[in-house]
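Appendix C reproduces, verbatim, an entry submitted by the partner laboratory led by Prof. M.T., so that reviewers can inspect both the input and the predicted structure.
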Amino acid sequence: MRVERSLDALERRPRAVAIGTFDGVHRGHRAVLDAARSAAREQELVPTVVTFDPHPRSVVRGNQVELLSTLERRLELLADAGVEETLVVEFTPELSRLEPGDFAETFLRAIGTRVVVAGEGFRFGRARGGDLRLLQGLGLDVRPVALADGVSSSAIRALLRRGEVAEAAAMLGRPPELDGVVVAGDARGGQLGYPTANLNLDPDLLVPRFGIYAGAWRGHRAAVSIGVNPHYGGSERRIEPFLLDFEGDLYGQRLVVELWAYLREEAVFASEEALVEQIGKDVYATRAAVRPS
């Protein structure tokens, strides 16, 4: 998939454009993307996405939005959905004040958009004054897509804050993920016989409920600890997957780890032996876990 971050770099071509933030690229987003691809096939248009970074709400309201996916992961998922070209629009305070008609001319008409596909509640422009009816009035072929059974990024965030992995996966259409780079840790897991990778996540990403999870990375099951390691009196949040049946050096590598099931809360144990025994049970449960979808 071709990705551009400048209007000047994306030439004017007849396009079917799916527009939105697409955080998490969940089932509702996939319905929008599928509709754009269908329109592109019908009219021999280029299936294109116009998306925004950072999240518009973080700019307009000035508060952090806990994201379901990094921009890098979002683009990977858009490519998997069959998008050919994506324009990443930097969302700034100036952009938020752009009149809806000017927004449409600048970011849609200028790149050759003929069909616009978006969720039926999509709003844009100054004070969110623009909607799909306005775009239709400007002569664009507008195709609204209904919400998929109440699926939304906000609903998925709420589920993950409660550790409800299977329910979040049902809305995403795939397991939720932890996306980060392996950095040096305290190596305590290795001393216990269960060496873990210490994942450093983007600070804007949502971190699910603290606890122990079953998951996977590239065909390897993973028992994942999210939390502060209270048995050792920790206070700093750590995200530590133990990759079953894996040997190798992962320092500096990016890992996208799926979460399949919430196993238990963090705990303080009577002894280190009791902790090791429980980790063994977590590994057993991880081997038995079933991938949600």
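The chain has a mean pLDDT of 94. Additional entries are available on request from the coordinating office.
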